[in-house]
Specification:
single chain; mainly alpha; 71% helix
């Protein structure tokens, strides 16, 4: 199959998956918006109402943190099983296995852009105003997409060899959520520990999005450089594994 046909397949399958997902529920694609909003309400009630935790701008901080975290975690979890769930397809025809996690990652990116549009609307309604700093958002999107693609392709490459990775990934993402500043601003982290906090690239990304969107400040480009290097290394390892075991995966899933 010509490479151009592979790109067509990715976009067609992404479109088909989005339509199929929307058709499975009564309110269709509105669940893409309601899901993060329901999460926000639950966590707001727990942290702000019950535990009385958070600042005056806790709603906006929580909104930004959850939206970008959901993009990351959904992409990783969906890419994880992208090869096994397409077992029937890869046994019948040859496809570069890289395409399978890419389809799920592209699907989640499109859903994220819908949710992000709603996020901006909500922030405008509560008084957040755009600034010149917002021109850096495309760079931040590209960096997180690099991180998501690298992480998603890596777990997709490993999972057929180690199915227990699914359980480990679920627990790991839960732990990482609380270590990424989703529910709190980085200012609450004691100064001596912030260097360790920012070892987590998602903590860097969430903080950068909050600086740009909520505080109208440019992000820390040095920290984002670290995210770029981290994401590029993870993606390179993932691509190497997917290429190395490209012909092996169909036989593994038959075992």
């Amino acid at each position: 199959m010509h490479k151009a046909r592979y790109f067509e397949l990715v976009f067609y399958k992404t479109y088909a998956d989005l339509r199929a997902e929307a058709a499975r529920t009564y309110i269709s694609f509105l669940w893409w918006i309601l899901d993060p909003l329901i999460n926000m309400v639950v966590f707001y009630f727990v942290f702000k109402v019950i535990l009385n935790h958070g600042t005056e701008n806790f709603v906006s901080v929580l909104l930004v943190g959850l939206v970008f975290w959901k993009w990351f975690t959904n992409s990783i979890q969906h890419a994880l099983n992208s090869i096994p769930i397409h077992l029937g397809l890869i046994q019948q025809i040859y496809l570069p296995k890289l395409l399978l996690p890419l389809i799920t990652i592209l699907t989640d990116f499109i859903k994220f852009m819908v949710v992000f549009s709603v996020l901006i609307l909500l922030l405008l309604l509560i008084g957040i105003t755009p600034s010149v700093a917002w021109i850096s958002l495309p760079v931040l999107f590209a960096l997180q997409l690099l991180l998501v693609t690298g992480g998603g392709c890596l777990v997709a490459a490993i999972n057929p060899f180690f199915p227990d990775l699914r359980i480990l990934t679920e627990h790991g993402l839960t732990l990482l959520m609380f270590l990424s500043g989703v529910f709190f601003d980085v200012s609450v982290v004691p100064e001596p520990y912030r260097v360790f906090f920012f070892v987590n690239p998602m903590a860097v990304m969430i903080d950068a999005f909050r600086l740009v969107i909520l505080e109208n400040r440019l992000p820390n480009w040095f920290a984002l450089g670290y995210v770029f290097v981290f994401g590029a290394i993870i993606l390179a390892v993932a691509l190497t594994m997917l290429a190395r075991f490209d012909r092996v995966y169909p036989r593994l899933t038959l075992a």
